[in-house]
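Question thread 4412

I'm putting together a teaching handout and wanted feedback from people who do this every day. The idea is simple: show students a protein as raw sequence, then show them the structure tokens that encode its fold, then repeat with a second protein so they can compare. Below is the first pair exactly as I plan to print it.
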Amino acid sequence: MGIEVDIRRRLGEYELDMSFSENSKRIGVLGASGSGKSMMLKSIAGIELPDSGRIVLNDRGLYDSEKHIDIKPQKRNVGYLFQNYALFPTMTVVQNIAVGIRRPREEKAERISEMISKFQLTGLENRYPAELSGGQQQRTALARIMAYEPEAILLDEPFSALDSYLKDHMQAELMEMLSDFEGTVIMVSHSRDEIYRFSDTLLIVDQGRIMNHGRTKDIFSHPETRSAAMLTGCKNFSAADIIDAHTIFAKGWGITLKVKQEIPKDTHFIGYRAHQFEPIWGECTENCIKFNLSSRADLQFERNFYIKPECPEYSREAVITWYVQRDKWESLDKKGLPDFLRFREEDIMFLK
């Protein structure tokens, strides 16, 4: 059981070449705009046709180029939640939900009533999509999908058009509504926060290929590649030269780092998250960089400091970013700005 995808399709400048097999019920797909995320979802749903490959859901072949299998979208038993929800504008809430239900009349009415109650649409039954809020439209679209009991639900950037407050509220609401769904849910997004909150398993996609595949929390902790680290929110990167098994020189920052662990031989970059630096007042300790302030930005909940690297000539990209959360401001205000920032070994990311 689970889902298997192994597809290829030419997409302009690059080729979509996606291959993964997963039994997890909550799968996140993270990538930049235009990386092929949505095309993969549309291929699974049957909206787009790959050039070659195969797609299997719960041991049932949905697409197989060699066996000439291409199940029609309405027969795949896959629900697709579009960005704009794709409700029929001339149909009421009840009529939209009823569209996909193939049951005798009495059972159909019972199923609609069940969905109205489950998705908190009571009192809205006879309204049209234009008369609904964004949250109500989302609940109606999800009720329509769930009404015909799909084996999988595909979420394509479901919160991309929302402001931050509404986005957080609707994310929590969606997760609650899907909590008792036993099938597979795949959510595509370019928002690392959405993906981290939602998914157990993560696919990192870049230029049509899966660069990382594993447990979401593991990939965020150890992204392995520069592109994965960037997509998961890392702000600081430097090209690096390995000096020996426990010593590495960060060329962009002009500092040498010494670690107890053995440095992976395929390391070409170092990454370090902006909120993980340890401020040091007084004498320099190992793995420290001088706090040479370039600029700062004071935000409502965070202070951002931009530090010049040690090397005399540096690019704009090499400036080191340090984020200080609001709960640390009091200490910083009492002590003043630090003399150094220390790279903690357990937080250094060795990247391919």
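The second pair follows. I'd like the answer to focus on this one:
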Amino acid sequence: MKHKKNLPNIICFCFTIYFSLTFFSCNNTVPSQSQLCMGTVCSINLYEDGTQTLYDKMFQRLKDIENLFSTNLENSQISKINQAAGKNPVTVHPEVLLVLEKACQIAEITSGAFEPSIGPLVTLWNIGSETPILPSTEKIKERLPLIDYKKIQLDFENNTVFLPQTHMALDLGGIVKGYAADQLAKIATQEGVKKALFDLGGNVYAFGKKEKNQPWRVGIKNPLNPRDEPILIVPVENKSVVTSGGYERFFVQDDIYYHHILDSKTGYPSEKDILSSTIIFENSMVADALSTAIFVLGAKEGFDLLNKLSVDGIIITKNKEILATKNLIPIIELWAKDFVVIQ
């Protein structure tokens, strides 16, 4: 483990990630671009391979995914599935079945810590909007029986999805940005892009290597002071880095802090011993869902699961301890003096 010597130039990509990098100057290169998509600011940097045509292609892909999965769009396929809950199956695009299948698999692996049918609780709390709500215990209890990924019926032969109970609702906000990042990486590979950074509201994919064949250096934010310098740096290449924490979307009522990561078992924001959980993995869709699941599971159970799955991750606990999987221990650079890496 290396220790902080000095503060390099770091570029902050939205939610949990900083990148130190050298910019290229090229007369024929289109600079990085950002657009509002999937309810967040999405940024794409293709460096010397950037053309307007390729940027347009990638942003259109993001919009197509949003049109399929967004619960904020009345005519999206996820919204139509929710509207038909308890009534009839809905014919969907194969991509919807693909993502839902993976979501249900991760729900099974994590014993429901990641829960694709958590929609009724998400809408009840409404955290992240201008009008969050502290629901009554009675209302939460009413919603809990609707939360069960095992009830989601996927029919691959007929390309349909059915929610058998009225008022059941899907919410794939914890996995679809990861899927979108994977799709951008797929396009980059097909187009022969040598290096790129994709930041979808904090879900970051570091594609290829940066200059001089070096890995990207990714910083993980300090969850106790997210606007300060990163808590640690880790080198990555051709991997996604996704962090879940309760410090970006929350509200305070009667001096009590309520964040947006809901525990499907209790109906309340998770109260485990974790400040943030970061997953570093080739598949961004898996990383996205696992980052939420680990946060809900808690430090011990979450860390045991990472080791069982052979997935790299970093857990920062409320005791200011940093748990990192064995592949990361030799390469991370700890910057925060008041935190300690547990080996």
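Top answer:
Good format. For the second protein you could add a caption like this: The helical segments are 52-69, 77-83, 94-109, 119-125, 137-143, 176-190, 284-297, 299-309. The chain has a mean pLDDT of 91.
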